[in-house]
Amino acid sequence: MLKWNRFPAMPVALALAAALLAGPGLAKPSDNSSQSATATSSTNYANSSASGGMTMEQLQAMPRELPALTVPLKGQFVRFFAGKRRVYVPSFSLMITQSGEAKAYAGGSGSSDNARVSEIQTTLTGITDDLGVSLAGEAYADLITRLQQAGYDVVTAPPAGSPAPIGTTATSFSGQPVYGPRNAPLTPGMPWLKLGGGTGTTFNSLVGRGNPDGEDLIVLLPGMGIDYEPLQSSGNRLYGATAEVGTRLRFHIIGFSGALFALHSPQPYNAHWNGNFLLENGSGTDEPFAVLVQTGDKSDSRALHTGLALLGVSSRFKQKKIYEAQAEPGRFAALTRAAFQGLNASLVDQIKLAAAK
User: Shortest CA distance to 325 belongs to which of 345, 295, 351, 346?
Assistant: First the structure.
């Protein structure tokens, strides 16, 4: 809805409005692929751009084996690991972000009232549930192997009192899909899960007071979250003249990745003990894995609102661009493997370090 604060001479205004309304409206989706995109709207202009073109054929020709990423983890409350050699790993939760958006607002500069809104919405495509479950299974197997190589006795059967599994797919607290291995389905208490997840306390009864079978047991709840883009926004500025948003493709591991744990604390506590090993700093790579394609444009008429601004008529203009990040599955899988290999290696190193204290 337009907000009018003064009327110019009617014959001129009507003639100009008619010409503006006859101008271009919604833009057609772009057929070109890119690696980044921006959208900017100001008082008298609005534009968007994309850069860094790459084709799906080029992605398909790229290597499928990559070195492990460096994933620095930091332990919190890492006490009482010394002497414990049994580890129970119920599952491995792999959260893959598959949608995102950025929005910016500028209320107008000075005494003018020409509000501008820029928005970018994206979705990640090409990653099936089957692929997510398979990658979670690979991550789980990799961690089990590393723990065994480090000399730990991995408990394969769920101890008595363990919560019942909930399946290989679930939803995160941010609404994104979470995947678990087929042979070790997700359980309540695992990282990222919307329902009963991310606390680590679900397994406290296995290692708490009165359970002698848990006195030498470490319950380890590993999880990794992946994002496909960093989004940028100029934010909300009441007196700003420009609203700008942007995105670029970048594979990276996000916060809360690592592992939660529960173990027994000896006397004088004689109870359960909870802590975590979580991502200390961001970890990712600029290795390409997808192409960014504009698939929609729900912007207002740029010509109309620019003309109204030139006439001194207040208005609220919204620019909204919609993109798909079309992943090449083989490349995405290769980067995910590099990510969980780095995370698992760091996790085992942190456990050994905690045990040595």
Answer: 295
